[in-house]
Amino acid sequence: TPVSPGAGSEGHGTLANEAIANQKFLQLLKRLGLESHYPKKMGMGYFHTICKTSLQDREPSKDKELPFYFLQKLLTVDYGVRYLTCWGKSSSGLAPVPQTTEQKQEPSDSFENFFDDLGEAAPEHDSRDGGVHPMDLQMVIFHCADDFLRQTLANKLAFCQLALPLLVPNPGTSHIEFPLYALSQIQRSWKEADKSGNYNNKLISQAQTPIVSFIRIGSSASCSKSQLLNALLSKRKHDTFFHRHCRGSTRERLLMEGVVEIAWYCPRGSPDDTFECCVAFCNLHGDARDHRAQLQFLQEISAVNVALVSESEHMDNRGKQLLQGLLQSQRPLVCLLTEKENVAVGRPGKNITIGIKNSNEAQVMVQLTKTISNLLEGSRLHFSLDACLEKALQHGFFVDADQPTCVMAKAKAKELVDILKKEKLSKIKSQLLPLQGRLWYQAARGCMALLRDVLSYWCSHALPRQLRPQFILASSSLLKFSATRDFVLSVYFV
């Protein structure tokens, strides 16, 4: 049973929250110096900019330097882009050193005074502006980038083995975007354990894979959903999904609420693979009670749902209705209770409840991995991103692949590929790139022979020392002229 949208009584509160979020987003744009690039006004030229700062190996010292450094690190496929923060004095992330005054006190009452001072000097809320959250930086650049730059950003993030945005709420409105075009050129390779032969290597947007969705109901201060996902995806502590314990994380996270990220587990065909087939993992950020549209979309495409549930004994009506809808759904549900210990109940192949309070992380991961694997074995529901397009349109999501610029780009690319497929590649290369074929080989041999003759003449005539520089300059000029002439002629005739 799909989760029904929220009641109309929540409309006024939603509009108010959107207005506040929009104001904060505009302040973030101004803080990063990106006002002129929003929306979708940042092109590929900004990504490939090389300046003096590009050659310096240092961290940004001002907030307005963050976007440039982010793009530069991503251009070089630097995984450290995930933890990029500003190292200026105002946002270094270091607590101020408390000012102390020396007072003469008797040794006998120093212990009592220590606790009195703790009570009197209770830390107040830090009113200073904190640093920009690394994921806010990534998402604000995503909102400013045009469709072609978004595709490049997604490809680079995929090279870094980082999660990619699948559903992106607009910062100022209730519209949700499904960036299919941005994800359309990402390739993945994997090898399933029960199949022999070569690796599967294909565009991940066309790959039919089971989807496992992770959501959170309530606020969980003791367990991180993203950390659980990272442990499932990698045994080497790789932060595919950004979590609260990552370097640079702050409490103030503006643009990740309601974002759905996706990452893929690709097996190697070895016995120690966590899963036997390629599996897509989706992560809904924020409380699922506040993001009904994203939750309903995930329910329709997921083979297994995993819900991290807190406040189970004091859950409000919205949470109870949401959880009831998940339990009554056709999809299997794994319910992780953060306030229960040693609970593992449920019908085999349907709904399973696991208590994770005070549990060893390794034991939880073994149990969770085994549970998900068993549920996937009994499920035949596979989706590709291309197949999710229809679902996204049914929910009224904005799809970038339907925009005129993306449609035209795909048409031009297809036209070019069709031209290349009509003739053999060797023939096309000989026509369009004549210097890279036999002509280039002959020119190289001619240059070598010319240089050999020059050196031979030099040795045989024993040129005076004062004439040698002039002779070398004349020889190099002759070689440059010959190469330039051949290149210009070849370009002219092409």
Walk me through the structure:
This protein is of the alpha/beta class and 494 residues long. It has three domains: 11-88 and 131-160, no CATH class; 161-422, Rossmann fold; 426-493. Helices cover 41% and strands 13% of the residues. The protein is built from 15 helices and twelve strands. It has helices at residues 11-32, 44-47, 66-75, 110-120, 134-144, 147-159, 225-233, 292-301, 317-327, 361-377, 385-394, 404-422, 425-432, 438-461, 468-493; strands spanning 164-169, 176-178, 187-190, 200-203, 211-217, 260-265, 279-287, 304-309, 333-337, 341-346, 351-356, 398-399. The strands form two sheets. A ten-stranded mixed beta sheet has the order 10-11-9-8-5-7-6-1-2-12, with helices on both faces. It has a two-stranded antiparallel ribbon with strand order 3-4. Helix 14 packs antiparallel against helix 15.
